[in-house]
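Exercise 7. Given the encoded structure of a 352-residue chain, write a plausible sequence.
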């Protein structure tokens, strides 16, 4: 009896154990399948992710590669960024201030001085000057650009001063005659004061307009001019005349070394398209196929001066041919100051 009871008990226990073991085995099986599934989905995810990443990477590469090339080009251009500059010894290298150095004439002068190996400081208020005219020097160790109006005093240490700051074309200087007067009088006084303080030599960019409406042709330096002190051009004419007077007063009284250059009607690269002077006006009108406008009777004369470090093109002869086709019959002397040829067609010069 007892043994039977013990046997039943033992079989009951083993059945339970079996069930337990079976249960554990099932659980282990499910867990392993689950694990595999998780593993598989992880691997799948990873490969999708990797695939995606690869695609994105190749896309990025596609976009970045041309940019890299551009950067390489830029880096190359940085190394050869500046026009060639001569080496000057400490003794020969001058510290030079160019007022109005971002203007049409001033920027060519800046180029020359920089290429000669000097240290150049350009001061400009950008009324008619443009940063673009000197941008090829920005960052060069010998170059400095200061946004400053010469009507305000300037404190700087220099050996030479080229004073060109002033609007030069009639529409520009007549735009604000009082400002033109201030620039040429107070401005010149300030740079002369600076020249005196630091012992610098100064060159004033004067103008043929100091002769006013001259009665003598061509004008020689000893001609005193024929200026209307209250006429529409007086702010510039008289401004420059008093600027010259100041230079010579500083020379006589203070011993400042001065030079005066009377510049005539200039034209050349970097001249503003809307400068308003005759050469740019004519070129603009010709390029637009419009009649050229001659103010007044058309009998006035001017001496023109090409400004650039590069030689003047032969094509530009004042009041003459602007553009002409090869077989044009109007070429040469037949093209008069009263007519010009544009793309083979005779155009009339209109009198205003
Ligand atoms: O479209 C135009 C422009 C000008 N002109 C005439 O061409 C002549 C030249 O005039 P510009 O406007 O070029 O300038 P100007 O010669 O009078 O003065 C210029 O030259 C000397 C420089 O020092 C001065 O800074 C500048 O103003 C003037 O007789 C003017 O009346 C035209 O016939 N048509």
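Solution.
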């Amino acid at each position: 009896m007892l043994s039977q009871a013990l046997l039943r008990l033992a079989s009951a226990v083993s059945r339970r154990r079996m069930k337990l073991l079976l249960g554990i085995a099932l659980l282990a099986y499910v867990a392993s399948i689950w694990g595999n599934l998780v593993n598989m989905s992880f691997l799948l995810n990873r490969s999708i992710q990797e695939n995606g990443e690869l695609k994105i990477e190749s896309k990025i590469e596609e976009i970045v590669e041309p940019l890299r090339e551009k950067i390489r080009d830029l880096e190359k251009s940085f190394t050869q960024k500046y026009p060639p500059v001569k080496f000057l010894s400490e003794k020969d290298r001058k510290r030079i201030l160019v007022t109005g150095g971002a203007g049409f004439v001033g920027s060519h002068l800046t180029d020359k001085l920089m290429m000669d190996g000097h240290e150049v400081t350009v001061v400009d208020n950008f009324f008619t000057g443009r940063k673009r005219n000197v941008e090829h020097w920005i960052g060069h160790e010998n170059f400095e650009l200061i946004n400053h109006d010469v009507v305000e005093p300037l404190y700087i240490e220099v050996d030479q001063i080229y004073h060109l700051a002033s609007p030069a074309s009639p529409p520009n200087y007549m735009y604000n005659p009082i400002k033109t007067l201030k620039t040429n009088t107070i401005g010149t006084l300030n740079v002369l004061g600076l020249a005196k303080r630091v012992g610098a030599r100064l060159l004033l960019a004067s103008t043929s307009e100091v002769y006013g409406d001259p009665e003598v042709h061509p004008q020689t330096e000893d001609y005193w001019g024929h200026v209307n002190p209250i006429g529409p051009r007086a702010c510039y004419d008289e401004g420059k005349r008093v600027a010259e007077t100041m230079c010579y007063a500083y020379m006589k009284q203070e011993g400042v070394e001065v030079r005066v250059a009377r510049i005539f009607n200039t034209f050349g690269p970097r001249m503003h398209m809307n400068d308003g002077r005759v050469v740019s006006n004519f070129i603009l009108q010709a390029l637009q196929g419009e009649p050229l406008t001659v103010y007044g009777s058309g009998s006035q004369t001017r001496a023109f001066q090409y400004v650039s470090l590069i030689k003047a093109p032969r094509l530009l002869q004042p009041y003459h041919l602007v553009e002409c086709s090869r077989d044009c019959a109007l070429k040469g002397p037949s093209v008069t100051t009263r007519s010009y040829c544009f793309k083979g067609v005779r155009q009339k010069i209109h009198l205003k």
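Remark. Helices lie at 2-79, 104-115, 170-175, 177-198, 234-254, 278-287. Students should compare their own answers with the one above.
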